[in-house]
């Protein structure tokens, strides 16, 4: 199983990027997680959508080639980041590679509620007609106060959070296999 990870924070020391790397490493014998860059994508503009730059076409192709997408979202002012929304807008147009492609999501924030609003919005966005992505029911992975749960090297050291993500992964894999069978 090949999963594309799209991280909504573009900063170098992003906790969400570190969370994506934790998932990539911890479950490497169960699925391949390819972390995709979104910081270099131009702003979506309908004038250029039929002839976008190679950054855009490569990004879209990588998503098209994946069996599923893992969204790793920060929360900015109660919603997803502008960078993430921009990437999603690109994916929603022309080839519409998200249609039928299953999604699951995790998110980390420094606030107590751990991206709960951003994830609710993201679920809603993924149901837009140009995306129409089946989203893993339940299994919300909301990592609040993330700065207290990672060490200086960016390792996730909170045992409860690590165990909770183990459980979510146990649920996500059979669900993704069923979704792939339905949509293939
Ligand atoms: C513009 C901006 C808005 C933010 N809004 C929220 C918010 O609504 N809820 C929250 O829990 N944290 C919020 N934060 C704090 C983030 O949780 C924190 O910066 C986090 O580290 C961002 O994720 P990252 O480390 O992956 O970049 C905000 C941060 C920024 C820069």
Automatic annotation (TrEMBL):
Protein name: NAD(P)H-dependent oxidoreductase
Transmembrane annotation, as ranges: none
Lineage, broadest ranks: Bacteria, Bacillati, Bacillota, Bacilli, Bacillales
Record organism: Salibacterium salarium
NADPH-dependent FMN reductase-like domain mapped to chain residues: 1-147
Single GO MF annotation: oxidoreductase activity
Gene3D superfamilies: 3.40.50.360
One Pfam family cited in the UniProt record for this chain: FMN_red
Family of the protein in this entry: Belongs to the azoreductase type 2 family.
InterPro entries, per the entry: Flavoprotein-like_sf (IPR029039), FMN_Rdtase-like_dom (IPR005025), NAD(P)H-dep_reductase (IPR050712)
Signal peptide: none
GO cellular component, one term: cytosol
